Amino acid sequence: MATSAKAKAPTKDRLLTAAHRCLLQRGYAATTVRDLVAESGANLASINYHFGSKERLLNQALFELNSQWGEVIFAALDGAGGSTAQRWQQVIDSITERRDLWFVNFEALVLAQHDEEIRSGLAERGDGARVALARSFAGVTAENSSAADVHRVGSFYYSQLIGVAFQWLTDPETAPSAEEVAGGPNLG
């Protein structure tokens, strides 16, 4: 009798993989212990043994997916052409290709209101995102600018990123094009 690949992986890894899948397919709030057990092939007690609670397992998986989101977005930006519109097109493409990953990250924001671990984890990751966005969009780095400038420029692009993502996730028919985002408001 052949052992399945799922059963060969250590239980802790299977639980994390199951939590990733459940978060992407069902979301945090809708994922139950029963879902995690069924998806992982592990027993109920293993969740508490390895993570202490369902919430700690889901939080760890959430942070791993948040890191994966960062890798996806910054790989897209690093591979983009030189123009700002081309960079924004890469961002928009990443949103449309990985909607599940973007939705998980927006759900984390809602969860942060009542979960200090999630709030502080997102804040820490936000600092890294600001630094990477300042570099990717404006060439502003700690080597050529002050920490305050990196924060200011990164915060501007981070705000744009979240707004663009929200629009593409909720109403792609009227969401701004890459050219519109890159051009900014032309009210003149």
UniProtKB/TrEMBL annotation:
Specify the DNA-binding region ranges.
32-51
Question: Sorted alphabetically, which keywords does the UniProt record give?
Answer: DNA-binding
InterPro entries on file: DNA-bd_HTH_TetR-type_CS, Homeodomain-like_sf, HTH-type_TetR-like_transc_reg, HTH_TetR, Tet_transcr_reg_TetR-rel_C_sf
Quote one Gene Ontology molecular function term.
DNA-binding transcription factor activity
Indicate yes or no for the key word Repressor.
Answer: no
Which N-terminal stretch is annotated as signal sequence? Answer: none
Ranges for domain HTH tetR-type: 9-69
- The answer to whether keyword DNA-binding applies is yes
Q: What Pfam families does its record include?
A: TetR_N (PF00440)
**Superkingdom classification of source:** Bacteria
List the PANTHER family: HTH-TYPE TRANSCRIPTIONAL REGULATOR RUTR, TRANSCRIPTIONAL REGULATORY PROTEIN
Q: Could you tell me what this protein is called?
A: TetR/AcrR family transcriptional regulator
Q: Which organism is it from?
A: Nakamurella aerolata
Query: Highest lineage ranks of the organism?
Result: Bacteria, Bacillati, Actinomycetota, Actinomycetes, Nakamurellales
